[in-house]
Design goal:
Blueprint: H1 5-9, E1 13-15, E2 24-26, E3 30-33, E4 39-42, H2 45-52, E5 60-64, E6 69-75, E7 78-85, H3 87-97, H4 111-126, H5 131-135, H6 137-143, H7 152-171, E8 178-180, H8 184-196, E9 201-203, H9 209-219
Parallel strand pairs: 5-8, 8-9
Antiparallel strand pairs: 1-2, 3-4, 5-6, 6-7
Helix pairs in contact: 2-9, 3-7, 4-7, 6-7
Length: 229
């Protein structure tokens, strides 16, 4: 698990490119092996993380919302732990290719429905129930007109994000403020959800990749100019 900037720099792959004056340089990702011997991987998010970290001596808990949401911890300048949740991809699949999407109608974000989804996820977790039984409530609430059809997507979003936070915080008992890196819309949804669960967060710029790549390249002596942190 080369979770330090310098370690990733040593894992470069140089690829010749006839259209460019120099070879393309591909950075390595990060791999974590869990206690049950299964692997988790990070391919790209590590550059956003390193582009955000300001000090090697501080502790940084991160959440990177997206198709495959990442929770990560940076300690002593290295990624010491991370976990992936397929929240975004599951949301898209359920909306577009499942029975849950049949009653959904397009509309603006519905804060009340989103909140109700968070509450349902929290209650399911407290009652030792899983996400699979809670998911059908998206359909039943629509069938009985307890939620507007334009609010069902927001409810599902709250349900999935709430389930992610419930599961992640069982593994990752972090009390510090989380650094959120993602699109503006997703980051603010997660910030709202984290507040519901009594957790603090701060939204970072989503454009940290270039800075992270530059730092990795500098550590690997690929850049002649020094880049200020």
């Amino acid at each position: 698990m080369p979770g330090r900037v310098g370690g990733i720099g040593r894992a470069f792959v140089f690829t010749p490119d006839a259209t460019a004056p120099e070879d393309l340089v591909c950075t390595g990702g990060v791999m974590r092996r869990a206690k049950d011997k299964t692997q988790d991987v990070m391919r790209g998010e590590e550059t956003q993380i390193f582009g955000t970290v300001q000090s090697d001596s501080e502790r940084y808990p991160f959440i990177l919302p997206g198709t495959h949401s990442k929770w990560a911890l940076v300690e002593d300048g290295k990624i010491s732990w991370f976990m992936t949740f397929m929240t975004g991809e599951l949301f898209a699949l359920l909306c577009d290719h499942s029975i849950l999407g049949r009653l959904m109608e397009e509309g603006c974000d519905d804060d009340e429905s989103f909140q109700r989804g968070l509450e349902r996820a929290a209650h399911a977790w407290q009652d030792r129930l899983g996400l699979l039984s809670a998911l059908f409530s998206v359909r039943s609430l629509g069938l009985f007109n307890e939620l507007p059809k334009t609010g069902l997507k927001s409810y599902l979003s709250g349900l999935l994000i709430g389930a992610e936070i419930s599961e992640a915080t069982r593994q990752f008992k972090e009390k510090s403020s989380f650094h959120l890196i993602g699109t503006c819309h997703l980051s603010h949804l997660y910030a709202k959800a984290l507040r519901f669960f009594g957790l603090r967060s701060q939204v970072e710029s989503e454009n940290q990749t270039a800075r992270g790549l530059a730092l990795i390249a500098m550590k690997a002596n690929l850049l002649s100019d020094r880049i200020s942190k």
